[in-house]
Structure formats: structure tokens, C-alpha cells
Amino acid sequence: MAKTIADGFFQDPRLEKAKQLIKEALTEHQKTITGVKPGNPELKESYDALLKKVAEFRGGALFYNYLGSGIGNGPLVELGDGSVKYDFITGIGVHSMGHSHPGVIEAQINGAISNTVMNGHLQQNVDTAKLLELFSKQACKYGAGVKNVFLTTSGAMANENAFKMIFQKRNPASRFFAFEKCFAGRTLGMAWVTDKGAYRVGLPKTVDVDYIPFYDANNHQASIDAAVKAMKKYITRFPGHHAGFIMELIQGENGSWVGHTEFFEALIAVCKENNISVMVDEVQTFGRTSELFAFQYFKLDKHVDVVSVGKNSQVCATLYNDEHKPKPGLMSQTFTGSASQIAAAYYVINEMVNGGLLGENGKNNRLHNHFKKNLEKIAQKYPEKLQGPYGVGVMVGMSLFKGDEPKSKAFTMKLFENGVLSFLAGGHPTARVRFLMPALVTEEKHIDEVCAIIEKTLLEIE
Ligand SMILES: Cc1ncc(COP(=O)(O)O)c(C=O)c1O
């Protein structure tokens, strides 16, 4: 006997049958998506009109002429003009399960047939409990103390909430440390953390941030010394004024720049001596290395006070230790995430943990090595055109034409036309083109096809 009416409803055999039918229809249709395909000429006019409408009502054109049709198959996605492309950027790292994954769709249906659209901090359904526990247990599995989880709606909000907790604990300290060229989001607060002038033009100052140079693998010890020196100099200049240090351990928006444990530990030691909270921004790194969290990959478990996650996790969150528990009144939000999102997050994170992605020999590393090998071959053939690749796991970047931004942008546009989604990162003259593959559904043969298109496209750029 079902204990609640909801149990009775969710276990009703008619729902099982309906879900089975949806799954059958989905797999039947999606299996016809087998490779890159140009748009249907008959749809060109109406698709262009749609793009124009979006640009008009959005107040500006989209980066790519991308409006999805609503179906895909693994790493392949169909657009509204009937074209099919390889999605190797996944909405900047969101669709880690690729497109139209039957398991994700089933999870979303389970959420969609529950009573409301949105969960929030005042009223959330029982599913939330499972998700909180999953985040917490996974984050703490090697001994980290970040066991408390506050759900939120975007990566930038996860960072905002982290900053609030840290500032409150360290009050009256009002400054933050961040890495040069970091990206932390685009809220009024995060616009002053993200190290890109263009993203804060015209905005009033919100947070005082001191920037520390990032790790340089070509100058291991010198870059550690330079970063520590810079940090100490700021601390001497503003004694007792720094509340926290936000660290992106692999810089994503800057083009997959990878840090080093010794580098982070040297800086963390200075933080600990000076009562500065250690915050790791995992919005982009979550689920992309051989560990679920990049702080686990770099073995910083003992040191982290606050961690933000987003993108791959489907629902964003701030994880924090007991010392950073906010006082009543500081935190709340109307929305945590939709019921479908929460169900999908639980499914996706479990798949990331149990689906063979993680570990030394896991798929994230395997795909990385295969992609790297292919790109290195292209780099050897055309050393003037392609340098790299760089990155860890399923974060892969490459320099084109020695970091020339206009040419790199032209390449991404051409690559899109030729059937592969990538994205631009960093800025001139250190621009990179990067990829965030949907690891669970990408196979070596997909990478081979993508690399053939990359090579062809490179030859089309003058
Ligand atoms: C490291 C990092 N932090 C924060 C954010 C902001 O996340 P969102 O765009 O969901 O606000 C991003 C987004 O790219 C990111 O890469």
C-alpha cells in the first residue's frame, strides 16, 4: 500500500506505460540522427526569420545561429533548420549527458508530473533531500568539511552566496583575492571579481578584489614564488582587510589553464596564516577531471572552506563548512530549481559518479588523451596554425594562430558552419578555442570525426 497519495500516483502502472511509450518514440526518432548534416534548404527562410525575431526581441543577435529543434542523439544535436552538429561545448558545459538522453528525459518527466514547476527554499519537495545528501557526501568523501549545501539558480548566484557567507564570517574584512583572468559570473558583485574590464564597463564598484597571477607550468617554482609574493604584498598593504580567496583551479573561460597542487597549497598556507577563507569556484570544473570535484583532483580537501558548483550539476549550489554557516536572515531564495531540474541533477550526478567517468582510467581521462593525441597530430602538421592542446579531462583548449583573437573567432564561426560547436576563450593575444565535451555520450569515433572537421576548417582560415 502506498504511504502517500503521491507514491500511489508516481507508481501508477499507467505512468510507467506512458514513459515507456515516450522512450520508444524518442529512441526511434533520435536514432535517425547519425552524423553532421547541413540545414534543409526548405527551412532556411523560416529559420532565418526566427533568428531575426530572437535578435530583435532579445536586443541583439545570438553568438551562433543556434536555435535547437528539441532533439539530439548523444553528442549530436539537431537545430531548427534541420542541420545536425557535434555539440562539443554543451551550452558552455551544461549538457554533460549530451542531447535527448533517455535517462535524463525520464528524470525530467518524473519532475514535470510533480505538483509544481519550481521548488524554493520555503517549499521544496522530498527529492531535494536526496540531492543535498548526494552533493554533501560526494564533496566530503575524502575528508573535506564542506558538508552543508545551499541550492541556487546560477553559478554566479552560487558565488554570490559564497561571498556573503565569507564576508559575514570575516566581517569587517571587505576585500577578496582572486586569480588574474578568472571568471566568476556576471552579477553586479561577480562583475568585479571576473577579471575582464569589458564586463564591468559602466557598473558601480561593489567588491574590492586583489588579483594574484595564475600558475605557469613552464615556470613552476617561479610562478609559485611570484604568486605568494604578490599575495603577501597585498596583505601588507591592506592588513586584516582580506576576507577570502576565490580560486578557479582550472581556468575555464580563460581557455583551460591548469593549476598545480603545490601552487595552491603555497597560497592556501598564506590564507590560513591570515584568517582568509579558501573558496573554490567549481562551476566549470565540476565533473570534468578524474574526480567529481577539482579540489579532490588537486587534493585540497583539507583546506576548502566554501565551494560553488554549477553547469554540469544542473542545479547550482554553494557547499560550506560549519565555520561558515550564515546567520539567520543572510540567505534565502524564492527558487532553488525546477522539479525537473532537481530530478535531472540527481540522475546526472549519479551517472557521473557511477558511469565510469571518474578515476585515473575513467572516461574523462580517456577522452582527453584521445582528443589530445588527435590535436597534437594536427599541431605537428600545421605548427603555425595550431598550438597545444591544453587542459585536463574533458576541458580541452587549443591556441590558433598563436592566440590571434579575430582569427580564433573566425575559426569558431567556420567550425560551427562545418558542424562542430566550440567556444572562444581568453583574449588577444592569448585567445584559445575550447571544448567541453558531453563525456558520458562521447566516444573516440566522435572525437575522430570532430578532429577531421577541425583540420578541414583550419585550412579554410587564412
Ligand atoms: C568558473 C565559473 N564561475 C562562475 C560562472 C558563472 O556561472 P553562471 O553563468 O551559471 O552564472 C561560470 C560560467 O561560465 C564559470 O565558468
Automatic annotation (TrEMBL):
Its cofactor is pyridoxal 5'-phosphate. InterPro entries: Aminotrans_3 (IPR005814), Class-III_PLP-dep_AT (IPR050103), PyrdxlP-dep_Trfase (IPR015424), PyrdxlP-dep_Trfase_major (IPR015421), PyrdxlP-dep_Trfase_small (IPR015422). The keyword Transferase applies. Keywords: Aminotransferase, Pyridoxal phosphate, Transferase. Gene3D superfamilies: Aspartate Aminotransferase, domain 1, Type I PLP-dependent aspartate aminotransferase-like (Major domain). Belongs to the class-III pyridoxal-phosphate-dependent aminotransferase family. This is Aminotransferase class III-fold pyridoxal phosphate-dependent enzyme. The lineage of its organism: Bacteria, Pseudomonadati, Bdellovibrionota, Bacteriovoracia, Bacteriovoracales.
